[in-house]
Design goal:
Layout: H1 2-10, E1 21-24, E2 29-32, E3 38-40, H2 56-62, H3 90-100, H4 104-123, H5 127-142, H6 151-165, H7 172-177, H8 183-196, H9 210-217, H10 221-237, H11 245-259, H12 266-273, H13 277-295
Antiparallel strand pairs: 1-2, 2-3
């Protein structure tokens, strides 16, 4: 046991009164038997290390900790529950019954976390994005932004903001495809979130979306490199504020295919990226005019 090692390393007598030191195994503490001074505390118990449990009783005996604390759990797993067994007093029975009732705040967060986990699982979002989104949702709940708004719409808006903040390449359209709410409600919730919480929504980098579209269209790697180069040059010297990142990606890929003499139809490219052919042509014409002006 580590307690015995720790005891041998310290001393056999109390440094204050010289009394004998005793070991409290349950709390993993070394205490003076005379004055009560705690010599050492928070010892690490290695008694169960390396031992496997084969039965339920062995598992319960060797189990030391529960699940880790997470923001994705509504109550952080820190609740206390009144045991209903052997309660004879009717007042205590009534108290235990009311203790099981779930308040609105907890029920709201339970619905929100369930929806958030579902969308995140479908989109393969990392844990840090989910934690950022649920923290944002809790702040919105405290500010009473849920009044008159759907829980699922606010969850989708929080996820979209978290993706943009953490620079995860996910578009609003992808999140809308995973939720039952309308795009209008999600956008309205997103605007309220940014305005009321005074957040700065970073723009999505279109170059981070290009590899996915290149893989979907089965285009060569040289088109991917050229498209990314086109997007970075175009955004560096041309105002793209307010323009859909998907449209910029579509225009850059079409421009790169034209430059490398690779045949691809506008309809095929627009359907793969998720924009209209009109948007694709508009971005393509802007890029063509921009790069022609650079060559002069």
């Amino acid at each position: 046991m580590d307690i015995q090692i720790e005891k041998n390393n310290i001393s056999d007598t109390c440094p204050e009164c010289g009394g004998d030191i005793i070991s409290i195994e349950d709390k993993k503490e070394l205490v003076c038997s005379n004055c009560g001074l705690v010599i050492s505390e928070r010892g690490v118990d290695f008694a169960h290390s390396g031992k496997r449990a084969y039965t339920e009783s062995e598992k319960n005996k060797r189990q030391r900790t529960g699940s880790p604390i997470s923001n994705l759990i509504p109550d952080m797993e820190l609740t206390t529950i009144i045991d209903k067994k052997n309660i004879q007093n009717p007042d205590l029975k009534r108290a235990a019954k009311w203790d099981t009732r779930m308040p609105w705040k907890k029920r709201n967060l339970l619905i929100a976390t369930t929806e958030l986990k579902r969308i995140s699982s479908n989109l393969n979002l990392p844990t840090y994005v989910k934690e950022e989104a649920i923290q944002l949702y809790k702040e919105a709940f405290k500010k009473k932004l849920l009044r008159g708004r759907s829980i699922n719409a606010m969850v989708a808006a929080c996820l979209y903001f978290a993706c943009r903040k953490k620079k995860v390449p996910r578009t609003l359209q992808e999140i809308l495809e995973q939720t039952s709410e309308s795009g209008k409600d999600v956008r309205r919730s997103f605007k309220a979130l940014v305005k009321e919480l005074k957040l700065k929504a970073p723009n999505t980098d279109p170059s981070s979306l290009i590899p996915r579209y290149i893989a979907a269209l089965k285009l060569p790697i040289k088109i991917e490199h050229l498209s990314i180069k086109i997007v970075k040059t175009f955004r560096h010297q041309y105002p793209t504020s307010g323009k859909d990142p998907k449209g910029i990606c579509a225009g850059a890929i079409y421009f790169a295919c034209k430059a490398r003499n690779i045949n691809i139809t506008q309809k095929e490219l627009a359907d793969a990226v998720g924009v209209t052919e009109v948007t694709l042509r508009s971005r393509y014409k802007e890029m063509k005019k921009f790069f022609h002006s650079l060559q002069r």
